[in-house]
Structure formats: C-alpha cells, structure tokens
Amino acid sequence: MIDLRSDTVTRPTAAMREAMLQAPVGDDVFGDDPTVNALQERIAADLGFEAALFMPTGTQSNLCALMAHCERGDEYLVGQMAHTYRWEGGGAAVLGSIQPQPLPQGQDGRIEWAEIEAAIKPRDAHFARTRLLSLENTWGGQVLEAAYTADVTDKAHARGLSTHLDGARLFNAAVASGVAARELTRGFDSVSVCFSKGLGAPVGSALCGSRELIGRAHRWRKMTGGGLRQAGVLAAAALYALDHHVQRLAQDHAHARMLAEGLQGLPGVRVQTPQTNIVFVDLDASMQHRYPQGVVSALQHEGVLCTGLYRLRLVTHLDVSAHQIEAAVAAIRRVLG
Ligand SMILES: *Cc1c(COP(=O)(O)O)cnc(C)c1O
Predict the structure, then answer these.
(1) Per-residue pLDDT reduced to its tens digit, 231-285
(2) What is the span of the domain harbouring residue 181?
(3) Quick check: CB of 59 below 6 Å from ligand 1?
(4) Which amino acid residue places its CA nearest to atom 4 of ligand 1?
(5) What CA–CA distance (Å, rounded) separates 97 from 92?
(6) Is 275 inside a domain boundary?
(7) Which in 104, 122, 167, 229 has the greatest CB count within 10 A?
C-alpha cells in the first residue's frame, strides 16, 4: 500500500527509535524530565519565544493556546476552514466557552484585514469580547507569506488583539519558501507546531509563547489531561526530528510536485500545483457520481490510500519514495482516466 492519506502515517525511523531509547527521562509533571526541558528550550529559541510547552497533540496545543489567550465570553477570529475552528471538535467553544467568529478565506488561506477589522466587536455588553486572531500556516499545503502575517498581526495588535498561529506544518512553510521559521512566526504571540506530521515523530506538538502565556497554558494542559510523566521518550523523537527531518521536507515537496505533474492532462480532473506536501485533486461534475467515496475505494483497490472528504487529498511524507510516487501516478491515472 502507498499511504498518501496524511503525513501523520510515518513510522519512527530506526535512528529516531534509538534516540528515544537513549533519552534521559524524569517526571515531567515535576518539571524533572531533562529531554522534555531540552526540547522546550530548543523549540522556543528556534522560533524566537521565551518559553515552550510540550503537548501530546496539536489539537490540545491549539486548545490550551486559545484558553490561555481568551476567557469565558471572549471571542476569537479564525478562518472559516481553519483547523482550530473546523477540525478540532469545537473545543474552544465546548471547553473554553470561547466564541469562534469564523471569517471567509481566500484560495490562498488569507483573511483580508478588512474582514478581520469588520468582525472586531464594539466594547459593549451586547457583544462577546473580541480577544484573539488565529491564523494557520501552511494552510491547505500553501504558505502564508511573512509579509501578509506581519501586516495583519501588526494591525491586530494595534486594535488590542492577541495573535496565535496554528503552525502544525510551519517547517514545511519555511522549507518551501526559503524563509526561516522564526521569520514566519514573527508577529504572533503564540505558535503551535506539530512534530508528528512531516517531521515524522510518533507523537507530539509544542506551544511557544511568553513565559506568562505558557504558564497559563500549562495549567490548561494539566486540566485537559495532558500532564505526561516520563515524556522524554517522546520529546527525544521530536528533538531528533528537528535535527534530521527539517531540511528533508524539500524531498516531500518535490514528490508532491511529481505527483501533481504526473496527473496533468486527465479529462475532468483538476490538480492544484502544490507548494508543499499536499496535493488536492478536484473532479468535474461529470465525475462527481464517483466522488469521493467511489474514487477513494477504487484507489485503495489499486494500492493507493488517500482521503476525499471535500476534495481528493494526497499527502507526501518521509515514508513514500519517488518510486512509489511513480506507481501512485500510474494507479490514479488508471482509476480517473
Ligand atoms: C494536524 C493538525 C492539527 C492538530 O494536530 P493533532 O496532533 O492531529 O491533534 C492542527 N492544525 C493543523 C493545521 C493540522 O494539520
């Protein structure tokens, strides 16, 4: 099987497992795990923040960030299709009593400043208190440019808002654009990054921010059941990934381009040119009766796994080779041709 469902399907490499095996550990709830502490210091310094907190998942990391920024009855501004709003079970509203204000996004994932500004509520008892702007990079595999994020975070701050970045695939954005990750995080008061996506760790995310914000997030992490004990075995995988799996993301991006190019020219099939490791395929109305479940199962029959909730989505990662991409192209052409 060629598994293109997500970059989360990777298995830790032998060298990563060795790093996990050798990691010194302690009880992180007491703050005693040297490997967790090293990871937190490393990622905070790399991204230009005072502090960081290791998290079991990106969902919990985003949730704790939203809850650290906002109080009950506050509101956060977020893209209509953003992960924190759409794909995290409504946690901010359910667990944080934080009202999301979803806003339209362009094809490139941007929310125009005019939309953001128009959604900021007056300070009046009728309204939730608009407290936070949350953006996502990469968005649908596309890079939000530093010039855009610097501009809207500046303007948000001037209006008294805080800013959060869901940077689950921040390193993909950095590698694809040739802009340092810490430049892409400039202007954000907090950033969440995943180690378990393209970086290939089995588990883990980190939330970065000021010492004060991370202190508040720490309390929420405990309350949401995320206080881990000898978590150094997991942090070791993340540290290994930061050392060895960042630059190689360029290879996943090249594979995604190969895949997209290989699928050009099929009638009724539109393939978006990928910037990073995610390829979206849209089918014309004439093929919609086969879509998405029909196509997904037909591909599975041909040995290719992918997802098709809204559009067909194919994701490249550490565990797919150029050879497998060629085989996937041939299989997909057989199914869609
Ligand atoms: C995967 C993902 C998350 C959540 O990460 P989990 O570890 O799966 O909870 C958050 N945001 C984006 C954009 C993601 O792709």
Answers:
(1) 999 999 999 999 999 999 999 999 999 999 999 999 889 999 999 999 999 988 7
(2) 10-244
(3) yes
(4) 58
(5) 6
(6) yes
(7) 167
**Which of 195, 229, 244 is at the close of a domain?**
244
* Beta carbon of 196 within 6 Å of any ligand 1 atom: yes
- What's the gap in Å between 79 CA and the centre of ligand 1? 15
Query: How many domains in the chain?
Result: 2
Looking at residue 337, its pLDDT comes to 84
Q: How would residue 212 be classed by pLDDT, with cut points 50, 70 and 90?
A: very high
Nearest protein CA to atom 15 of ligand 1, as residue = 168
* Residues 119 and 209 reside in one and the same domain: yes
pTM score: 0.96
Question: What distance in angstroms lies between residue 125's CA and the mean position of ligand 1's atoms?
Answer: 34
Q: Is 210 in the pocket of ligand 1 (CB under 6 A)?
A: no
The closest alpha carbon to 14, from 237, 335, 227, 266, belongs to: 237
Q: Spell out the SS3 assignment of 12-68.
A: CCHHHHHHHHHCCCCCHHHCCCHHHHHHHHHHHHHHCCCEEEEECCHHHHHHHHHHH
Structure confidence by residue, pLDDT tens digits, 67-99: 999 999 999 999 999 999 999 999 999 999 999
Distance between CA 83 and CA 107 in Å, rounded?
15
Is residue 252 within 8 Å of residue 316, measured between CB atoms?
Answer: yes
If we measure between CA atoms, which residue out of 49, 273, 76, 257 comes closest to residue 170?
A: 49
Q: What is the Å distance from ligand 1's center to 59 Cα?
A: 6
Q: What phi and psi, each to the nearest 5 degrees, are found at residue 230?
A: -80, 65
Distance 294 CA to ligand 1 centre (A): 26
